């Protein structure tokens, strides 16, 4: 699926692995805890799913676990690959999307975000990051819901 993101960049989304020629070095993790969406409050962008860049010598899965913990204090267990999308910006990049099971929450010192927000619904109002509002993210959320992981 192709779409234009809210920054005006061409993006391609795939629910099939290995489609893009650029190696994914970014992660996005969609998870729930006690029936609520696990979000992080970015200091400038607003509410969004946790994620970020893969560090040197780190796998995508390791980055996913680390980013969720650093941004929310959530400890995740089982990760499942869901999708990848390619953003054709000045410096094109590929991001891998995972779904994950949240085992527990821990209180941690936060640096990058204002911490965890647990939400029963994804309202996508002005409190949410622009990253949550483009066509690709809507398709990803739709796919997560169809996946049937969280029929609460």
TrEMBL record:
Keywords, A to Z, come to:
Hydrolase
Q: Give the matching InterPro entries.
A: Nudix_hydrolase (IPR020476), NUDIX_hydrolase-like_dom_sf (IPR015797), NUDIX_hydrolase_CS (IPR020084), NUDIX_hydrolase_dom (IPR000086), Nudix_YtkD (IPR014078)
Where would I find the Nudix hydrolase domain in this sequence? 10-138
Note one Pfam family from the annotation.
NUDIX
Q: Which domain of life is it from?
A: Bacteria
Q: Where is the signal peptide?
A: none
Concerning Gene3D superfamilies, the annotation shows: Nucleoside Triphosphate Pyrophosphohydrolase (3.90.79.10)
Return the similarity comment: Belongs to the Nudix hydrolase family.
Would you tell me the protein name for this molecule?
NUDIX domain-containing protein
């Amino acid at each position: 699926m192709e779409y234009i993101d809210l920054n005006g960049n061409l993006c391609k989304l795939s629910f099939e692995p290995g489609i893009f020629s650029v190696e994914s070095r970014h992660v996005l993790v969609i998870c729930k805890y006690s029936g609520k969406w696990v979000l992080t409050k970015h200091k400038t962008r607003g509410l969004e799913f946790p994620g970020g860049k893969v560090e040197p010598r780190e796998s995508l899965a390791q980055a996913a676990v680390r980013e969720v913990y650093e941004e929310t204090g959530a400890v995740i267990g089982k990760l499942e690959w869901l999708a990848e999308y390619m953003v054709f910006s000045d410096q094109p990049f590929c991001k891998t999307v995972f779904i994950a099971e949240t085992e527990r929450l821990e209180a941690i010192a936060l640096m990058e975000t204002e911490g965890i927000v647990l939400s029963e619904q994804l309202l996508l109002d002005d409190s949410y990051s622009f990253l949550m509002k483009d066509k690709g993210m809507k398709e990803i959320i739709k796919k997560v819901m169809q996946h049937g992981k969280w029929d609460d």
